[in-house]
Structure formats: structure tokens, C-alpha cells
């Protein structure tokens, strides 16, 4: 079962002009930040929200990012899943590619049922 997009990611926020920004930057895990961005972009591009049954999970292994996404009807009867593998340097294209793939499977129909 895939989690909700960005589920379990922890964010620390501070003011841009704060001296604590340097400390926050040291806490940042680049791989987690990239994977979380991909998952959130997938949700945003599908115009989903907190109550939309959309799941997403991105992982980075070696030089590649593996992404899985899913949309399910509210009643859980129908579901469409996709998987995308892309080179790490192309991370900004993964959510778009995943949304295009899921739309090809007519997943948009699931969001309105």
C-alpha cells in the first residue's frame, strides 16, 4: 500500500533572514527533499487535496529515482496505478511524466466518481 504524498516527511521552517537558517540547512537531507517534492508535485498536478484518494512514493537508489503513484475512487472499488523510473538529474520531470501516464489510463474519471 502506497502512502499519502509526502507522508512522514519532517520539515523545519525558519525565516530566510534568521541566523538559524544555517543550522536548518545542515539538517536537510537532499534525497528526502527531492522525493518529497516529486510526491507533492504529483498531488498538485492532479489537483488533489487531503481528502483525495491519491498516493505517491518516491525513492532514490543510486543514480535513479523510482516513483509509484495511485488514484482510487472514494469507495475504493476502482484504482489506477503507475510506476516511473528516471535518472536522478531529471527529477523535476518525474511528476509531469507520472501524471501524463496516469491520465493515459483515464484515471481522471476516478476523481469525479
Summarize the structure.
The protein has 113 residues and is an alpha+beta fold.
Name the CATH class.
Alpha Beta
Strand-residue fraction? Answer: 15-25%
**Whole-angstrom Rg:** 16 Å
Task: State the helical fraction.
Answer: 25-40%
Strand count, sense and barrel status of the largest sheet are: 3 strands, antiparallel
Sequence of strands across the biggest β-sheet: 1-2-3
| Known CATH architecture | 2-Layer Sandwich
> What coarse outline follows from CA principal-axis ratios?
globular
Separation of termini?
21 Å
Which runs of at least 5 residues are low in confidence (pLDDT < 50)?
A: none
Overall structural class, as computed from helix and strand content, comes to alpha+beta
Task: Write down how many β-strands occur, each being a DSSP E stretch of 2 or more residues.
Answer: 3
Mean pLDDT: 89
Topology of helices and strands:
Elements (H helix, E strand, L loop, with lengths): L20 H7 L2 H16 L8 E8 L2 E9 L6 E9 L6 H11 L3 H5 L1
Antiparallel strand pairs: 1-2, 2-3
Your description of this structure?
With 113 residues, the protein is an alpha+beta fold. The protein has a single domain (21-112), classed as Double Stranded RNA Binding Domain (2-Layer Sandwich). It is 35% helix and 23% strand. The chain is built from four helices and three strands. A three-stranded antiparallel sheet has the order 1-2-3. α2 (30-45) runs parallel beside α3. The radius of gyration is 16 Å and the shape is globular. The mean pLDDT is 89.
Task: Supply the key terms.
three-stranded antiparallel beta sheet, alpha+beta, 4 helices, Double Stranded RNA Binding Domain, single chain, 113 residues
Amino acid at each position: 500500500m502506497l502512502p499519502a504524498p509526502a507522508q512522514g516527511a519532517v520539515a523545519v521552517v525558519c525565516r530566510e533572514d534568521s541566523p538559524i537558517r544555517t543550522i536548518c540547512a545542515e539538517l536537510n537531507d537532499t534525497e528526502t527533499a527531492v522525493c518529497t517534492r516529486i510526491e507533492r508535485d504529483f498531488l498538485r498536478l492532479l489537483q488533489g487535496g487531503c481528502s483525495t484518494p491519491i498516493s505517491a512514493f518516491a525513492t532514490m537508489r543510486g543514480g535513479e529515482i523510482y516513483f509509484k503513484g495511485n488514484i482510487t475512487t472514494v469507495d475504493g472499488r476502482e484504482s489506477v496505478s503507475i510506476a516511473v523510473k528516471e535518472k536522478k538529474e531529471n527529477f523535476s520531470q518525474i511528476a509531469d511524466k507520472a501524471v501524463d501516464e496516469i491520465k493515459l489510463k483515464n484515471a481522471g474519471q476516478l476523481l469525479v466518481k
